Structure formats: structure tokens, C-alpha cells
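Re: the request from the purification team.
They wanted to know what the chain is likely to look like in 3D before they choose a buffer screen. I agreed to run a prediction and write the result into the notebook, where they can find it.
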Amino acid sequence: MKLAFSTLGVPGLPVPEVLALATAHGYHGVELRAHPEEPVHPGLAPARRAETAALFRDAGVELLGLAGYARVAAPGDDAPVLAEIRDLLRLAHDLGAPFVRVFPGADPERPREESDAIAARRLGTAAEDAAALGVRILLETHDSHRTGADAIRILGPVGHRQVGALWDVMHTWLGGEQPSDTYAALAPHLGYVQVKDIASAEDPTPLPLGTGVLPLTECVDVLSRHHWDGWLCWEYEKRWYEGAAPLPGLLGAGREHLLRVLGEAA
């Protein structure tokens, strides 16, 4: 498996500095948070897109994906959601990123079946754009659909190879789902896996990998047993927890922890 980290852990950091961290600490790739607060977002001019892609190539670091914020199961018209996804897809294409992340974001007051159908319809439509651009849309296990069993209610009806799943290990754990069950649900659709660690279900403050309560070892064991060889991406949520320790000082130990867990699983 290859290792990456998300720029959610280094809010606003310029891309050259992000790449310097990746190379210094031995990470194969980076997931970019695609938001107006960040250096890379859908409003980026064409010249800056080309410059950013060149920075990644020159550094020998892969751009794993763009973490967008489109909510595919949210109530309302399809058009704004589809426009947001298409903007992300074009940005990913221009940068050479294989994946874009979207959220479910269903209204908990609405019937589950209605929200599932809305999300499947939108993803099915956007899948054609994704195919044309050579990018894959990944629905993250998050918010209203935090388990693999939840996500598959959307992904199953879509049934398109350009639409898959992003397994966030925190949300499936918070949803009470065992790693083996998550993998069984998502395996045909799995794009990559976001790893992290937290203090407790009541306190999701990000912690160094291996120092919290999340079942990282079990998740990696499941992936290894099934010979899955994709990406593990450390999503350290520094942006939302200003009091958390700075990520740069944790990257080296985090990589060592993941390598140790991978070695034990093998």
C-alpha cells in the first residue's frame, strides 16, 4: 500500500511546502483539500493549474485526489450539486488527480430512501462527465452515510465504474461497523482509505496515529488479507481543531506507525 496525507492537516500551506513535507517524510502522495481557503480550489486559473501539476511531477509526489465538499444527497435542485462536482472533476483532470471526494450530506428529516435516490441519480449523471475526464468520484463514508452499509445503498444503484467509495475509518467506527463488514460492503467500489486517530467517540480531537481509539490495525489487517494494494491517506483534521499538535512534526512517526502496522499485517 502507498502512503499519503491530506492538506486538511496543514491548512493554507503553499503547495511547494506541502511537497517538501511529503518528500522529507517519505510519503508517496498528497490529498489536496479543494476549498477557497486553500491554494488549490476550483477557481484556480489555468496557468496555476499547470504550474501545480508541474510541481507535483518535479517533486516525484503523486496527487492522490481532491477532497471536495459537494453533498450529493442534500435536498434541493440537482443543478448546483452537479455543477460543483463538474468543477471538481475538471480541476482534477487538469492537475492529473485520479479521484475527487464528495460527501453524502442527506437531510436526516427526510426519508432515507428519498435521499439515497437523490444521491444515486446525481452520481449517475456526474459519472458520465467523470468518465470523459478520466477521473473517479468517491463517496466518503461520512455524516448521513457513515458506514459501508449506508454508502452501498447509494453506490449499488449507481453501478458505474467511475463512481466509488472512500473509506473514512473514523466514521465507520463511529457508526458501529466492524472493519471486515465495511470492507465487504465497499470492496468492489473502494478507491482509497482515509486513516486517522482520535481520543474517543465523544472527543474526536485528532491524535498521532496509533495513540487513540480507532481500529487502524484491524482495518489494515482486513485490507492485507484481501491483498488490497491501494492508498492509505492520513487525514489529520487540524483545520477543525486549532489546539491539535501541528502535523509536520507528526508525519515521520505517523509513517513509521503505518509501516509497522503494514509489516505486522503482512
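For the purification team: The chain has nine helices and eight strands.
Please add any questions underneath this entry.
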